[in-house]
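hey can u run this one w/ 6-O-phosphono-alpha-D-glucopyranose bound, need the structure tokens asap thx
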Amino acid sequence: MCGIIGFAGNTEAVPILLDGLERLEYRGYDSAGVAVASPEGRLQVKKCKGRLGVLREALAAQKPLTGQVGIGHTRWATHGEPNDVNAHPHVSQSGKLAVVHNGIIENYMEIKQSLLHKGVVFASDTDTEVIVQLLEYYYKKSSNLMDAVYEVLNRIKGAYAMGILCSDFPEQLIAVRKDAPLLIGYGADGNYIASDVTALLAHTRTVTYMEDDEVAVVTADHVQILGRDGCFLEKEKHQIQWDVSAAEKGGYAHFMLKEIMEQPEAVRRTIQPRLADGEIVFEELEDERDLMKGISRIYLVACGSAYHVGMIGKYALERLLGIPVEACLASEFRYSGPLLGESALVIVISQSGETLDSMAALREAKRRGSKVLSIVNVMGSSIARESDHVLYTWAGPEIAVATTKAYTTQTVLLLMLGVYLARRLDRIGNGEYQEIVRELHGLHERIGMVLKNLELYQKTAARYFNHDSVFYIGRNQDYALGMEGSLKLKEISYIHSESYAAGELKHGTISLIEPGTLVVALAVYEPLVEKMRSNIVEVRSRGAEVVAVTTEENRDMIGSQASEVFVIPKVHTLLQPVLGVVPLQLFAYYIALNRGCDIDKPRNLAKSVTVE
Ligand code: G6P
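ok here u go:
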């Protein structure tokens, strides 16, 4: 959730830290801070509540923090309200040690109590401060910094990625991780640590992913990585394919709009390499011809929008494969007694590949003998590395907190996987298969057509942005689409919104429909369009204003009942959600724009959720 950057090099650290924090701000933006070691061994810290801009201004207004080794942090508050004191870096009582941390230390209260008894004075309410005070306690005892770091790791429980500075070793920083992402970057001017590769793209694309329980000592010319037992490790270096412009706004007002507009290209990148000679090909699964052998059920496990992708997948895969498929919220999965084992295939869907609940579900599935296949966007992320098989979406970096292109590419990839498996199992007719393959070839162009109607979405949003409650209704995969449309709207515009299976509304919630209530009706799923029409009539006759989404074929039938209609091209029913979501994204975007919301960084949210 929080963003971490660290630098040890031959040039001033602060500009590099601030630039890295700017690129990491989507991971959390309650407060930000930096700590720099001066060459003579003095730790200088500046941290402020609020966005990074506040920190920048505060730094500009004072004597510069000079030094070539430093750590920085942008925070999404868990323990302790967002204020200056609770902002990271946290400093030990003597001022010798500073720590930035992402994650949660679960036993921090117990450790804090014991340190309080020993006379340690705490400044903040955070779990993180416990780490730095404990480190100082052990360091004083042993006078050996690395021994003290290991003592701390033995004592703390929970998830963490950390950067540590010590004034006795002003030329180095120490990095540690467990269940939270951290990587090391090798640049021309020095070496880096970061919680996210986007923070490093301007400096290097050569990285090493740290694994759980590893400790790294980073200086300007050296990186040493040690295992939990203190042994040196030889770690692989990876080359990142993304370039820095992919993580910049490129003239768009917001990353969200840029990423919506990038969808044709992102979806093309997901699909094209997997189509060859009229077939869907997954090279990643070539060695696993028997992936489905003995599999009697599938769990699709994810959080947030990725869970909504799972809901679409449930309808599609169940029909295609003829076995039970369940979409599960990752935060519930391991507590709900899933029927795991060799006969269950678990598909984890995650843009970041770092979401803690999804990761925990993955581990539980593996522990209980199930094979795990993941659909991930970020290469080398934890979920990708721990899965038995990984299918990358290749959507490029997604910066806006509200996901768009990751969602569409995940959807298309999951649907392609379903069709591919159905083909292997001989469960899909040749005609239907060929039709889907043909439509996959042109799907990105169809998305481009939906994106042409910007004016209509803008105009409709201008008409409805003042509503304070919006319902989304749909049936079958349109219900899943409504879930995503509703989430998009509420997360960026702060309008209360609910999504209902259209047939369910009359079992209670219809009581909330009154003259003027806005209902977004999804009538895209061809087999149930007529039933949706009846549901639209039901809410209309109670005074609702209806904005409908439907296909060209049904424009008249649905449009005649709606105040406004967004029309999308007709494709094979299975692929229809990939187009259906686009007007919903833009509708939410323009509503939020009209309301003057901070679209890329909505309140209380963070893009990558690495706490439970
Ligand atoms: C956060 C993001 C959502 C995302 C969810 C799962 O809540 O704001 O956009 O869908 O996490 O993230 P993941 O990286 O696992 O797809």
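Residues 303-306, 350-352, 355, 358, 401, 403, 605, 607-609 surround 6-O-phosphono-alpha-D-glucopyranose (CB under 6 Å). anyway lmk if its weird
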